[in-house]
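Standup notes
- DV: blocked on the single-chain target, sequence here:
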Amino acid sequence: MTQTHLYPYTHLVVRRLWRTLRMQSSCRSLVALAIVAVMVMLGLPQQVSAKPMPQSQERVIAQSAQEAVAVFDSLTELSDADRSDVFSSYVSDIAAQAANFLGVDARVMQQSWLRADMSHKLALINGLTQLGVPYKNNAATENVAFDCSGLVAFAWGKVGVGMTHGSSAQFTSATRVKVEDAQPGDLIWRPGHISMYLGVPSAILQTPYSGRSVELQLMNERITSWVKYANPLI
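- DV (later): unblocked, structure below
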């Protein structure tokens, strides 16, 4: 199996460096040099194991996603490549957290997320910032309430992809893809419901119905066998 070069311990290094740099008044060139220096460290591998975590871990994942978005938005001075590398270290860590919560293979989920294009990464991470936000029919308000299509519209809207409200309308506006070609963040549709693919079989980000909230979930085998996948970018 090919190993990815980005693992959770590097995320801690990047996070500490970013916080330190944010408090300093150093010039732009020194900021860029410091970030590039961290990139050299990203080649060191580390094993990741998947262990199911308690429900409170969703809040931890949401906080990690919020920090990842803030970091990405703050590093506009870097080249696209360096900015992507820094963001990818956060993506790798969040993927491991999500896999651990769901009890699936963390390395497989990490590799899937890291292979996704930047728009898919950003849409998914923005969606994860809303973990724990309650369900409300016809809602699409950040940090307040969502229904299933409202969450999808919010996440993809953050990367400039406008979507109407309604699961069927969203699915038909995207391009259907085979499951083997689906990227994390792609749409998973069945009649009356839409969610976001997490890059491994059955794993989704969704808000299902009243009384529940934005959550990570594994679909059962029956549902997994007949849902449809679609890419909003093609």
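- Follow-up: Residues 1-10, 24-53 have pLDDT under 50 and may be disordered.
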